Amino acid sequence: MKQLRSTVIRAGLGALYFTGAHYLLRPIFSGVGAIFMLHHVRPRRDAEFQPNRHLEVTPEFLRAMLAHLRSRGIDIVTMSEVHQRLIERNFSRHFACFTFDDGYRDNRDFALPLMREFDAPFTVYVASDFAEGTGRLWWIALEMAIAKASSIEVKIGDVPTRLDTTTPAAKQAAFDRLHDWLRSLGGDHDIQREIGALCARHGIDDAAICRDLCMSWDELKQFAQDRLVGVGAHSITHCNLAREREEIAAREMADSRARIESALQWPVLHLAYPYGDKIAAGVREFALARAAGFMTAVTTRPGMVFPESGRHLTALPRVSLNGNYQDVRILPVLTSGAATAMWNGFRRVDAA
User: pTM surpassing 0.90?
Assistant: First the structure.
């Protein structure tokens, strides 16, 4: 099903490009700017089974996007500048803002040199447990377990289930099913219990994944000294905030902020909700972020930024630079707002 959705999205992006419809729709749907969402930036991998491919783009694709924005005279700004323009209603020039979730080391190794090349500021949202080396990147652990196995045995809803993982297609189907099941569980503790048991059965050191991929506090301190780098909060554990009790969700936001500020000795003004979709961040979470004093908070809901987004500063949409769609021809489609408008039902603001 997810592969079908990707195919449909790719076809839709292609149709917008080849018909030139994005040129006609740009004045209506481009808004005043866009906040781009990324995770990994690194060279393309060759493995056939890469279920998390959507979370990574190549340096070449990021460079193409930066060059496209500069060629169109679009300002590349910080999240604080986004906030200021929305508050002051300064919409004389279109803007773009780049955000990276989780705090991966490749943001330093591959993204930062490109951002320097284009003098482009960006924000990295850090999950504090990841920086401490104690977090669990369960979606990567799941990929690694399935990649090793010829079959996976789990209990889904207390029903023993055996999933074939002998071929790349079978592995993808198993990943999709288990990923959706894990995200449906009651909270982060349940996910970690299940993924921990799965990793133990298949010889995966899930504790090491975070240390291998994410910047430590010491690395972040040096990274954040670059004038182009901003650091925001991304919770403590990268949990689904909407599935947690209110006091836990509030603590995930506030304590993550406090830990980052203590480590970096720099104020943390911006937040990204983990997962960030409608089942992970809603009206309650938007209010909690405001109460915690964040200037802005970003979701993963697709959309451009419009003037009325200034009334919903803790429910800002983003445009995903998705690893499944690394075609330079779609760059003007993405900046036109046509693709996200079609995806979210042509709503200018989706903050409910």
Answer: yes
